[in-house]
Design the sequence.
């Protein structure tokens, strides 16, 4: 059970990387980023449950990760809204304004 | 009957269902065409992960996951989708060569991680600390509270400052800025 849960965390991480790199829509990229963070969270909770049973340090770190992920999702969506207002599209491959 | 007094086989069966739900839900998040379906399946994946935390004796984390991820982050993503909704015209995109390379690399990374997971001998790496039998921890939230007020006080306070900065930053970024012209000068009007 321990190893299958670690495998689940690795699966969520790899699927999140694939979705983040290959998605055309910016909001889908944000959702895949949240998937990656949740994969890491599952990994930490599994280790904290099996190894660090006396003091649950893994769960405290997961709390920090959850808070930071919420903050980053809010800022990411604010940026996406601003881009949509200026350029009227949310496709990642149409934003080459900063290219040399 | 609390969740931690269930037997090991019932926990394995519940975990099997939850894992199938997470696997299929996350595939739907990445690959479905309509983005609203992806966002709703993301909420389903978050709820399944919260139930996995509940089985792993992390009840405070399960509550926090549902409150913050499902209640705040998922709702925020759905609001964002509704505000920037451009209708997709149903054409299917061909897979480019870059996407194929990324797929192969992600599958390679997953294979490497799974080889690493299944070939380490976990019991002798952490020989005195590893618990395979089920010990019950009734003090989950007390231990977490002890840590964030004694050991990890500095990250906790910095996190609160970060959340304050995020709040101010979000409002500043998402403001409407429009130009107004008066007396032959152009000024920026903040809404």
Sequence:
């Amino acid at each position: 059970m321990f190893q299958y849960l670690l495998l689940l965390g690795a699966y969520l991480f790899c699927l999140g990387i694939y979705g983040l790199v290959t998605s055309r829509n910016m909001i889908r990229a944000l959702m895949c980023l949240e998937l990656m963070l949740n994969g890491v969270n599952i990994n930490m909770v599994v280790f904290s449950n099996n190894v660090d049973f006396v003091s649950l340090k893994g769960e405290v770190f997961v709390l920090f990760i959850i808070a930071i992920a919420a903050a980053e999702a809010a800022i990411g969506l604010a940026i996406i809204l601003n881009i949509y207002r200026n350029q009227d599209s949310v496709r990642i491959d149409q934003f080459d304004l900063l290219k040399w | 009957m609390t969740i931690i007094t269930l037997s090991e086989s019932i926990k394995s069966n519940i975990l099997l269902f939850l894992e199938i739900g997470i696997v299929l839900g996350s595939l739907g998040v990445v690959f479905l065409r309509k983005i609203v379906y992806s966002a709703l399946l993301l909420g389903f994946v978050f709820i399944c992960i919260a139930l996995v935390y509940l089985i792993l004796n992390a009840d405070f984390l399960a509550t926090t996951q549902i409150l913050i991820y499902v209640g705040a982050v998922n709702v925020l993503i759905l609001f964002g989708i509704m505000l920037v909704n451009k209708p997709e015209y149903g054409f299917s995109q061909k897979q480019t060569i870059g996407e194929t390379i990324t797929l192969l690399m992600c599958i390679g990374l997953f294979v490497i991680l799974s080889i690493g997971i299944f070939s380490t001998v976990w019991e002798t790496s952490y020989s005195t600390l590893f618990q395979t039998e089920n010990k019950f921890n009734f003090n989950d939230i007390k231990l977490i509270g002890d840590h964030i007020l004694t050991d990890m006080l500095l990250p906790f306070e910095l996190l609160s400052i970060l959340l304050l900065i995020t709040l101010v930053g979000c409002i500043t970024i998402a403001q409407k800025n429009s130009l107004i012209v008066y007396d032959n000068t152009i000024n920026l009007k903040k809404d």
